[in-house]
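Why do we care about 3D structure at all? Because function follows from shape, and shape follows, mostly, from sequence. That is the central idea of this module. The next example makes it concrete: a single protein chain, its amino acid sequence, and then its structure expressed as tokens.
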Amino acid sequence: MTGAEGLLERFIRFAMKRQGILAGNIANVATPGYKAMDINFEDFLTGATLPLAETGPGQMQAAAEPGLDASVRVDDSAPWKDGNNVQMDTEVAKMNENALLFEGAMKLLGNRMDMYRSALKR
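And the structure:
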């Protein structure tokens, strides 16, 4: 996919990867020494632009899409006595936020597909 669909696809992949990391945090809530992790959304947004490449005189198209450059970061904030710093309420809130973003991206992608289907029927 290219253009907006490609961007939405990459966003959905990002949200899926983040959900897995957040679920891992929750799974390790009682693991001594475990540090909570998350994906840096700002890194993803920085790499989310679609650069244009000139393919001929007066012709432009989307250049190769960059990969998912979001970096996983470890939270080194004040841990509990056992060295673990996972806070269940924070992780659940992040998962809920991520689920809403995923749902929104899926809805937008579905709407775009509906527009294409509608155009093909005419």
